[in-house]
């Protein structure tokens, strides 16, 4: 790119140094471009709620004095729009936070079973009319190398989506199983599904399949990008399969903390 230092190829140290500096400049340029894109995306996303809010307030200004119905409606709608903006701002903050996670988190371990029981109970409490089948095949005591709140955040995002896009069939499968190496989690719904052309993009920030519909549902298109980033930081994977009209399956894999294996490794290193 244009910020690079020009240098003629040679075999000396100055040339090597210049090549390295140019690599650093490229990385900085890439970072700056990412930041720029992010600011552009954010501005774009905020434009709609701000315009909607302006619409409600203009109504209020013009007819609010004379028409009590307009008065009440405009205020209710304005508050709703403000709530939406608040959740958008909160999720954008979450996203920038997961871009830079403190290294101390990476060393954390979380016991699988209690977390799943809690997440399952919380969901049942929030959505009592939903059938949640919890298929628990977790080896007692097994742990994953991830900060507890981060795993909880990912599970809540996936369950929340399964709920939001469930359609008429109010049923979710949550399955968790462990072996010596991996925790596998499956979150399955029987809802609206995702078309093939959208599947690749659902993990992109601000991506929503149906902007109008998910806007009503309050989605910002950030949940899955946060989930993916969090899982990948901890060396895990997250994938999705879906059939339009039949439902969607999200699958997570995370490395298990294998205490026996780790002990053996430690002994060998002695
Ligand atoms: P949102 O806050 O809009 O739900 P996400 O990043 O969590 O944002 O999801 C991105 C988009 O992917 C959603 O807007 C929705 O269109 C689609 N999506 C996510 N989960 C599901 C699901 N379980 N079933 C159908 N569509 C889904």
Automatic annotation (TrEMBL):
Enzyme class of the recorded protein, top EC level: transferase
The keyword Magnesium belongs to this UniProt entry's keyword annotation: no
Is Kinase among the key words of this record?
Answer: yes
Protein name (database record):
histidine kinase
Q: GO molecular function: any one?
A: phosphoprotein phosphatase activity
Origin, by domain of life? Bacteria
Where the record annotates domain Histidine kinase, the positions are 41-258
Which GO CC terms are listed, alphabetically? plasma membrane
Which keywords annotate this record?
Answer: Kinase, Membrane, Phosphoprotein, Transferase, Transmembrane, Transmembrane helix, Two-component regulatory system
Which reaction is this enzyme known to catalyze?
Answer: ATP + protein L-histidine = ADP + protein N-phospho-L-histidine
Entire protein: shown range: 90 to 359 of 359
A GO biological process of this protein is: cellular response to phosphate starvation
Annotated HAMP domain residues: 1-33
Return the EC number: 2.7.13.3
Q: Where in the cell is it found?
A: Membrane
